[in-house]
Design goal:
Blueprint lengths: L5 E6 L6 E7 L6 E5 L3 E7 L7 H7 L1 H16 L6 E4 L4 E9 L5 E6 L2 E6 L4 H31 L5 E5 L6 E3 L4 E5 L7 H13 L8 H10 L3 H9 L6 H4 L7
Parallel strand pairs: 2-4, 6-8, 9-11
Antiparallel strand pairs: 1-2, 3-4, 5-6, 7-8, 10-11
Helix pairs in contact: 3-4
Length: 248
């Protein structure tokens, strides 16, 4: 909730898109993933025979094509949001825009609303400003939440960082640094609580073995249901979270 061990750029036959092969010590099966930044990623177990990848991709060409088509739609939908709903903390922010001579875009609270000011016709700069604002909101709400759970369950950590990870809700390093994704703000509170507890348990068990799950169950008896619910959630990135008002 580890970094790729190996990364290889290659091409599919018949003018198919490039893909990146990543070997992961945690992977038990082949996983396909498509992101705006990295394109098609193939995650495989450490000892997986890379020669088998082209055939697997050929068998999944339809799915890959549909995912790229969806991604293209998202990337071109740059309609600025008029409202942002942060389910984790139960707040809804109307968003308004004020053009100024500034070449940058800033996002600041303006009364009960969130105001973006500056070069607001530049939607890429608006999205960047929204990412910075979401990171600030995560530091304001999620970091104290993590600290409270840490003290409540005697699960100390060393540091916490807030990022916009593309594939993880959160992570815990061997040095007990916990990194949380500001997109947690878009999830229901019970799922956020589960993610934070999950990472705190990694300060004692840096794996997903039986001892880890037993520890997690002590603090969250319903972890199995929450884990399954979390698996149904997707990390979409700011472009999808806050450029489509109906999805907020």
């Amino acid at each position: 909730m580890t970094a790729p061990v190996d990364k290889i750029e290659t091409m599919l036959p018949s003018a198919s898109p490039a893909y990146t092969l990543r070997r992961s010590p945690r992977a038990r099966h082949v996983r396909l993933r498509i992101t705006p930044a990295d394109g098609l990623i193939v995650v495989v177990p450490l000892r997986f025979d890379a020669a088998r990848v082209p055939a697997l991709l050929d068998a999944n060409r339809g799915w890959i094509a549909r995912q790229f088509a969806t991604l293209a739609t998202i990337e071109h939908d740059t309609t600025p949001p008029t409202e942002i709903h942060l389910k984790a903390v139960g707040t809804t922010w109307p968003v308004d825009y004020r053009a100024t001579r500034s070449a940058r875009v800033a996002a600041r609270q303006h009364g009960p609303a969130l105001r973006l000011s500056g070069a607001v016709d530049d939607h890429a700069k608006c999205r960047a400003a929204l990412r910075r604002w979401l990171a600030r909101q995560a530091k304001r709400h999620l970091v104290p939440w993590l600290q409270k759970l840490s003290g409540m369950h005697n699960l100390p950590f060393q540091q916490v960082t807030v990022r916009g990870q593309k594939t993880r809700w959160a992570s815990c390093s061997s040095r007990h640094t916990i990194s949380i994704n500001y997109e947690l703000l878009f999830l229901d509170p019970e799922l956020v609580n589960y993610v934070l507890l999950h990472e705190l348990c990694h300060t004692r068990q840096l794996n997903h073995g039986p001892a880890f799950w037993a520890l997690l169950q002590r603090f969250e008896p319903e972890y199995r249901q929450l884990h399954q619910s979390l698996r149904r959630q997707k990390i979409h990135g700011v472009e999808r979270r806050v450029t489509q008002p109906s999805a907020l």
